[in-house]
Amino acid sequence: MLISKIIIIIASIFFFAFQVIYFFTPHKKFDSIPIGIEAILIFIFIFFFLYEQFKDVKDLPIYDNYFFWVSIGLFIYLGGSFFIYLMANIISREELDRYWLFTYVAEIIKNLLFAAAIYIYSKNPTKKNTNRALPNLDFML
Asked: Please, are residues 109 and 76 in contact by the beta-carbon 8 Å criterion?
């Protein structure tokens, strides 16, 4: 998927340029605009990543790999806290305190999925390839 890789690179460059420009402009106390753009970009990156993983047929199901649980954890956390972070500058402090609980729920779910990823990784860590195609060029004795 050459097109998806080009889209990811271009979107990352534009976001980096936006962040540099936004850093030097005066803004409110909470940066909800960059958080929204960053979350949307991470959603796109996760979709492309999972699409690539589903395309490759392997002997193990995708849920037996730690990267699946990490990406789903990020997706749930960003999805659960997306609108609260976007609205943080607009809504009153009382409403923010009332609805901030939802970000805690999303964060707990994310942490549980990260713990599952660590557990799955510890069961069968990726093994380094010891069969080298290139000779060992380490000349130190």
From this structure: yes
Q: Which residues contact 99 (CB under 8 A, 6 or more apart)?
A: 84, 91
Cβ pair 8, 44 in contact under 8 A: yes
At 67-116, the pLDDT tens digits run 999 999 999 999 999 988 888 888 888 988 898 888 999 999 999 999 99
Give kind and range of the element (H or E) at residue 9. helix 2-23
- β strands within 41-130, DSSP E: none
Q: What residue type is 121 in one-letter code?
A: Y
Q: For 7-133, where are the E strands, in sequence order?
A: none
Tokens of 113: 């999925």
Closest residue by Cα to residue 39 from 90, 84, 75, 8: 75
At a CB cut-off of 8 Å and minimum separation 6, what does 111 contact? 73
Distance CA 126, CA 137 (A): 24
| pTM of the predicted protein model | 0.74
The span from the CA of 59 to the CA of 48, in Å, is: 21
User: Which letter does DSSP use for residue 1 in this model?
Assistant: -
